[in-house]
Write a structure and sequence with these properties.
Layout: H1 2-17, H2 44-49, H3 53-56, H4 71-79, H5 96-113
């Protein structure tokens, strides 16, 4: 009877593995950001500080984590009036460093106004 029960349990284990059940193991790393699309909003905490508090707390952040020199970040800062419109043309002219300098200067002036 015990051998029959063990055989039935082994058969159930084999069939459940083939039933499409996927085991996802977490890696040793921290939480991963949400897989955002280009239409999703930007995580301003990450842009301003370089760290996302949600991810540090182990939560999921549903915003995009972009560098300060990313074209979407620059376009957003131009829309908000924190950078001049000329900043949008700089990457096309090969002036990525100048855009980064403009973004840094804008961040510094914004911080000074607080």
């Amino acid at each position: 009877a015990i051998a029959k029960a063990a055989a039935a349990a082994a058969a159930a284990t084999r069939s459940s593995g083939d039933a499409g059940i996927t085991v996802i193991k977490s890696s040793g790393g921290g939480p991963m950001p949400y897989a955002a699309t280009a239409s999703d909003p930007i995580c301003f905490e990450y842009i301003n500080t370089g760290v996302c508090g949600r991810l540090q707390r182990g939560e999921i952040c549903r915003y995009r984590h972009l560098d300060a020199s990313h074209p979407d970040v620059i376009a957003d800062r131009v829309r908000q009036g924190k950078l001049p419109a000329s900043a949008l043309a700089a990457p096309g002219g090969g002036g990525e460093q100048s855009v980064l300098a403009l973004a840094t200067a804008a961040a510094a002036s914004f911080t000074a106004t607080l």
